[in-house]
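P.,

For your records, the input lines for the assembly:
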Amino acid sequence: MKARLRRVGLPYLLLLPALALELLIHLVPMLVGIAMSFKQLTQFFIRNWSGAPWAGLGNYRTAVDFHAAVGQALLNSFLVTCSFTLLVVGLSWLLGTAAAILMQDAFRGRGVLRTLFLVPYALPVYAAVITWSFMFQHDTGLVNHMLHDQLHLTSGKPFWLIGGNSFYALVTVAVWRSWPFAFLCLTAGLQNIPRDLYEAAALDGAGVWQQIRRITLPSLRPVNQVLVLVLFLWTFNDFNTPYVLFGRSAPEAADLISIHIYQASFVTWNFGSGSAMSVLLLLFLLVVTAAYLFVTSRRRGAHA
Amino acid sequence: MQTSRVIAASVMAAVLTAGAAACGGGTSTNKTTPKTLTYWASNQGANIEVDKATLTPELTKFEQQTGIKVKLEVVPWSDLLNRILAAATSGQGPDVLNIGNTWSASLQATGALLPFDAATFAKIGGKDRFVSAALASAGAAGKDPAAVPLYSLAYALYYNKAQFQAAGITAPPATWDELVADGKKLTTGGHFGLAMEGASISENIHQAFVFAKQHGADFFDAAGKPQFDSPQAVAAIQQYVDFMAKDKIAAPGDAEYSANQSVTDFATGKASMLLWQAAASNLKAHGMAADAYGVAPIPFQTASASGPTAVNSMVAGINLAVFKNTGNLDGALKFVKFMTSTGEQKILNIAYSSLPSVTDAQSDPAFSTPDLKTLSQVLATSAAPLPQVANESQFETLVGTAMKGLLADAAAGRPVTTATVKAALTKAQQQMPTS
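Structure tokens returned:
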């Protein structure tokens, strides 16, 4: 009996340190964050925040009151983030898939190209994005020099870091930063597809497009399932790119939700309100993730 | 099986997003013995290394006098407020620190800073030593100051002498009408009359404050309630934005400046005028000779402005505060006394081309250069402190951001009207916390 208990208990005992750290590093701050969202935590209380008065659902009510300024701004930021995420995930996936398939067959210089493709992913975020912000400058930036001075595509020099175009500048930088990750994952996924499948298909007379549609893409399904989810979560929560590109107050057209929450809590010193928005974001991402996994796993079940 | 996988993945997603919910925390730096102090200095020189080189000999001097070793950390402006907030939240921070004087009332409300009551002032040599305008920017009226002034600054109009002469302008403008007229004369081809720092939240707010004062508007009423969109405030902001939108004396590209590019443009002759605080050392760093530019007071609405609208600068400056949780209060106050002593005030303010905050040091001939004389004149007669209310830092962010948006509209050629300015300010006001 005792021996059995020991045998059963050992794995759990070995897991215990990891579990304790997981609790300490992830769950406790999360719970603290959730607790903060129910408090009226302004600068008057940050020194002794347990003494801050309870706000009940007040912070949430302000956040989702879409007729008032705060709620309206949050809604706008949420919609901007949604379209940003759709575009970035879509384009990154498309670029990553295309590049991975093109690099599938061996040719001279493949290694060099692969390495080159991974550079944006390997560069430190700050260095890379600050370089982009120089390139997007109105008067002296490389982008305007190319578009206006060299190619004469635009009638005047457009602004990229302020106003409406800032959205496209942000999408460009984000895609540039995240597509190599898609490329990397898909390249790894492609290694697992047996070559005989292609040979058999070629013998049966399937063209390149048919091979991609019938063999490559279905074989990559499990990779894609995870890849799209991870890209979605990273992109939706991206803080570094907009922060380095635009500073602490992003233009309205590029006001991503993480920057917005940062502003609501740190810059206006209302940590309760910021936490409430974070919790709402957390709930939204949980729902999306759960729905996504539910739908994709069921469809796979049906296929099998 | 499938459900449990969905749950597991959802938990993972939750963990991935938890970063947004959990913020704060700071480094523990105030584990001091009575023989050491930690000092967070703001970045006053051209860069952090310059500050270290300036301050270290003085800190050594302090150690020789008192036996207390000061650990110096120069914190960049972009991090300073967040670092102070984290220190206030965690109770772990420096012993003595620099704060931007406009934050005084906001930080005072946190209770993290030591109030300078009569007894505390007695320990650092008395309240009367300080310039009263500077001391008024160290906390809310009627409360013991949360800090003491360390370096004082004021805004002035910097103008390029050679370009003025070439355009046939004999004297710097004294009213805004004159400035616009001169600006139009100076704006030719790729060259502009005025350089603006349009995407900088703090520059925008400092300009907004002066224009609002001159229009008779206050952004907070006597009870501390925000009133951002009064007709006078709208007119004030519109006047400033119109330099780019209507008068077109500033380059549209200025709307995205937030890293002191306007100073560079002025120093390199791309623009002829600049509204800035104590720009001398900055201009020197960009290679502009001191006799190439003139310094005049910021213009008024009318030539002989008087009364409450005769304001042409904020009381700008850096304050020195003591962290309430310090383990070495006695040493911290000794250090404050040292830094505000007449001798140190002369050395440090000469190095930073700012003005001393104690009256005894101001008489030194080093502070009677033409530009510093103008600045001290402005500070003594026509400067006013930014609203010293607890919500000041929120006001800075919201109104400063609104102005950044308006200038972006102006730059892109979209119309900036009384209605759009009012809408932007109303929106900013609605986002202010209600408490």
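Two observations worth noting. Confidence is low (pLDDT under 50) at residues 11-32 of chain B. The CA atoms of residues 32 and 157 of chain B lie 45 Å apart.

Regards
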